[in-house]
Automatic annotation (TrEMBL):
It comes from the Eukaryota. Keywords: Fatty acid biosynthesis, Fatty acid metabolism, Isomerase, Lipid biosynthesis, Lipid metabolism, Membrane, Prostaglandin biosynthesis, Prostaglandin metabolism, Transmembrane, Transmembrane helix. Pathway: Lipid metabolism; prostaglandin biosynthesis. Its EC number is 5.3.99.3. This is Prostaglandin E synthase 2. The lineage of its organism: Eukaryota, Metazoa, Ecdysozoa, Nematoda, Chromadorea. GO terms for cellular component: endomembrane system; mitochondrion. It is found in: Endomembrane system. Residues 64-142 form the GST N-terminal domain. SUPFAM superfamilies: GST C-terminal domain-like, Thioredoxin-like. InterPro entries: Glutathione-S-Trfase_C_sf (IPR036282), Glutathione_S-Trfase (IPR040079), Glutathione_S-Trfase_N (IPR004045), GST_C (IPR004046), PGES2 (IPR034334), PGES2_C (IPR034335), Thioredoxin-like_sf (IPR036249). It holds the Pfam family GST_C. Its main location: membrane. One of its GO terms (molecular function) is prostaglandin-E synthase activity.
Length: 348
């Protein structure tokens, strides 16, 4: 099993309204301008963005008015979409140009995707944090989104590699329940879910770029595929589309080599095959890591894998491992919004 750093203790079983009101907005005070314009006002002040598509769910009566700023094939964005679709959230999608990022001008400090704007007021960042916040929101039906956000305080730490201060969210893999007493089995299941969610972020995701951008030809083919599935011909002008394809392919080809070296990857295909087999070993004879239904770790890995669905790496992964059965079960669950009973309960 992949080893992890120190855990934050027992937050799953305790009611944890930990202080720190500016939990998620990338430090709310920094994200707001001096005249405290809302996120929606800042979005309107910038050039109008094109809504790529709207996902409407009859089950969602939460009035969260979610808007996802994303790259269609970014693994972190795919993780968020897998969660939103499985539980049946309604949301808008804005496709961000990966080179110019003009769609993110409203966000003064944070320029990474995914960004999820809720109600034109809350700017949520970091895929695992977004998932934990919304999962807690679904489970704690008597709490507002503001209340839930306060469960996820930020801390500032010094990055030993860059010697710069960075924001961290110690609770980002935790779903915060009300005061309940969990059985030993439930506690173990929650711990397993957290560990594998972190494994997806800290291990599996790092294997994707060295594989899909392995050669110049593969990198260019990948970006052409991204342009097709992301419908860039609808979202961007012609010159922006070609800039994104060719500059993006060149940049990521070289970036992938640096990532391969940084993470000590010798054979990128063997590494991703080994990761799939680690996951299958953890599944055992279960349909999903969550048992009869997916948990947040299942959704995280499915989203990450879906980010390179259609690429040569994905096809080779299916040929060399038995992960295809799990992936198809997950796709069926996500596309059918199999978890929507929870959002209907919240909407009621």
């Amino acid at each position: 099993m992949w080893s992890r750093g120190p855990r934050v203790a027992h937050l799953w079983v305790r009611r944890s309204f930990i202080g720190g009101g500016a939990a998620v907005h990338l430090n709310e005070n920094n994200e707001k301008t001096s005249n405290t314009r809302t996120v929606e006002e800042r979005i309107q002040k910038c050039d109008p963005v094109k809504i790529s598509r709207k996902v409407v769910s009859d089950s969602d009566k939460t009035s969260l008015n979610l808007r996802l700023y994303q790259y269609q094939t970014c693994p972190f964005c795919c993780k968020v979409r897998a969660f939103l679709d499985y539980y049946g959230f309604s949301y808008e999608v804005v496709e961000v140009n990966p080179i110019t990022k003009t769609q993110l001008h409203f966000s003064s400090r944070y320029k990474k995707v995914p960004i999820l704007v809720a109600g034109g007021e809350h700017l949520l960042t970091e895929s695992s944090l977004i998932v934990s916040i919304l999962s807690t929101f679904l489970h704690r039906t008597n709490r507002s989104l503001d209340d839930v956000i306060r469960c996820y305080p930020e801390i500032t730490v010094n990055d030993p590699k860059t010697q710069k201060e960075v924001l961290r969210y110690p609770n980002k893999y935790y779903v915060m329940l009300e005061d309940v007493r969990l059985s030993d089995e439930q506690i173990q299941n929650a711990r397993e879910e957290r560990e594998w969610r972190e494994w997806v972020d800290e291990h599996f995701v790092h294997l994707i770029s060295p594989n899909v951008y392995r050669s110049w030809a593969e990198s260019l083919a990948t970006f052409r595929w991204f342009s097709e599935v992301g419908e860039w011909h609808e979202a961007f002008p012609l010159w922006e589309r070609y800039l994104a394809i060719y500059v993006g392919a060149a940049v990521m080809f070289f970036v992938s080599k640096k990532l391969k070296k940084r993470h000590g990857i010798i054979d990128e295909r063997a590494a991703i095959v080994d990761a799939c087999n680690q996951w299958l070993a953890a599944l055992g004879d279960r349909s999903f890591l969550g048992g009869d239904k997916p948990n947040l770790a299942d959704l995280a890995l499915f989203g990450a894998m879906n980010s390179f669905y259609g690429c040569a790496t994905f096809e080779e992964m299916l040929e060399r491992t038995n992960i295809g059965g799990w992936f198809e079960r997950m796709r069926s669950e996500v596309e059918s919004h199999a978890g929507s009973a929870l959002i209907r309960q919240r909407s009621g």
